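QA checklist item 7 of 12: single-chain prediction sanity check.
[x] sequence parsed
[x] length recorded as 442
[x] structure emitted
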Amino acid sequence: MLIPEIIRKKREGHALSTAEIQRFIKGVTEREVTDAQIAAFAMASIFQDLSYRERTDLTLAIRDSGQVLSWDAERLGGPVLDKHSTGGVGDTVSFVLAPILAACGGYVPMIAGRGLAHTGGTIDKLESIPGYTIAPDESTFRQAVKRCGFAIAGQTDDFAPADRRMYATRDVTATVEQSGLITASILSKKLAAGLGSLVMDIKVGNGAFMTDMTVARELSDSLCAVGTQAGMPTEALLTDMNQPLADAAGNGLEVKEAISLLRGEITEGRLHEVTKALAIRNGCLSGLFASESDGASAVDRVLSDGTAAERFVQSIAAMGGPADLLSNLKHLANAPVVRPVMARAEEWGKTLTRVDTRQLGLAVVDLGGGRTHAGQSIDHAVGCTGWLRCGSIADADVPLAMVHARNEADYERAAHRIRHAFQFSEKAQATAVPVVIEHRTA
């Protein structure tokens, strides 16, 4: 089977066989396939699309290009499950959801990534915790999952190496935005982690990579269908990203907010609502909960009795972090400049009707809390907290946000971006958008 003929067949609109897809991915892994051929395959897929059967075959072939975990030997005694988010601003869900599911009897081997553009990454946030090992050996990772119910680590070169090579090429050839290729990229890594089920958190709005509801639904349906066909039952929640999810954005600041929720200091709000919804769907899909009402009761119980918080500190310690992180936030660095950003006088008394959430994420990048190029170091102490929410009235005494900066110049640059991201109106009322918009299934 010649690689150019496989590309030609897809270019001409024909469906590729399972064997042809496996042959192509084998060539990618073994570097027989060139970067130019990867780009040609990706472009052909954009113009001719991939059927759900082709997407499933591609997903499984990429999964099998590297290590695939199995949890049979651990005899865990509960379902192996996880969630995946398409990214946003203040998306702190992983740090709360994983210990909740663990406290309810699930096991979450979470392979996470770094920040991308204006969105924060779970691994970057974990690096704000002193001593935490983001790249543990396999034995340490397995033991943490078994003992604590969850562990979070970064993706290694052993998982889905074909995807890493394909994505690098797609990223520089304008071929990232294809739902079949995105589906295979996401699900191959989740399948490689040995999951029994998965719930996707598809962010939609001006702070998400997907701003269009139709596109978000298309991707959700693809992920649900392909994940389920590949033997990993998959569902999706579409959630709103027209405002930051958590009240904090920035690496260490988001860890602090997650801890506040686990300690019972936060019992409502957008982060709480999305986390609870994802926990319930994860539990129902995996068989951990008999019904949504049972799931809601279980989630409330493990948050209120401290069981989820206990699992959190156990896992942090198992991965090299401080065992007293839950009670001692001094482990997390503080920025030296903490100042409010105030509304302008002409905005006082007006209603906040729209927030450009992407610009708020970029304000955190301006502060040094994100990257503008690959490999750049980031400042884990900086960020923003206490966002003014849509529907609120601007006031001389109420900040738009609190900025946590390394110096005054960084503060001023971020404050300028934040002020321009908030839109007020004298008459219009903010349109209420539910934070959990839809539930999609295969």
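[x] summary fact logged: The chain has 16 helices and twelve strands.
[ ] second reviewer sign-off
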